Amino acid sequence: MSIRMKYHTMIVSNMEESIAFYKGAMGLVVDSKYQPNPDSKITLMRDEDGNFVELIENKDLETGLWSIRTDVDDLDKELLKLEAKGIERQMPVVKTSVGRMTMVMDPNGVRIYLIEHDEH
Questions:
Q1: Burial class (CB in 10 A: 0-12, 13-18, 19+), 49
Q2: H helices of the chain, where?
Q3: Domain 3-117: CATH architecture, name and number where available
Q4: For residue 93, is pLDDT > 60?
Q5: Which residues is 20 bridged to in the sheet?
Q6: Whether the Cβ atoms of residue 103 and residue 92 lie closer than 8 Å to each other
Q7: Quick one: pLDDT at residue 97?
Q8: pLDDT score for 120
Q9: Distant-in-sequence, close-in-space partners of 22: CB < 8 Å, separation ≥ 6
């Protein structure tokens, strides 16, 4: 299976505490910060291989792992493999700015986005 874990999204209760942890304990660096509205803060942190952790502080969301984003070489092929194992898509395949994607869920309700990038 050619699924590569590239991007994890977590809902956090304290952004500064979480940034300090991922910097100090995990060696990640802050890539960028956003505040899309007064109630949400987003920080993207990355490792030396270009993998990302997205931290979101939003009091309306439950803390914990929100989603895992993966890169796949052939979305249709991976979907056939997953469906053969009884794993159903949770959304239709949609076009994105980088290619196509869909989502499945793990048994705990964690969203797993499968993203196929366009050839450039």
A1: exposed
A2: 15-24, 75-84
A3: Roll (3.10)
A4: yes
A5: none
A6: no
A7: 87
A8: 52
A9: 28, 45, 53, 55
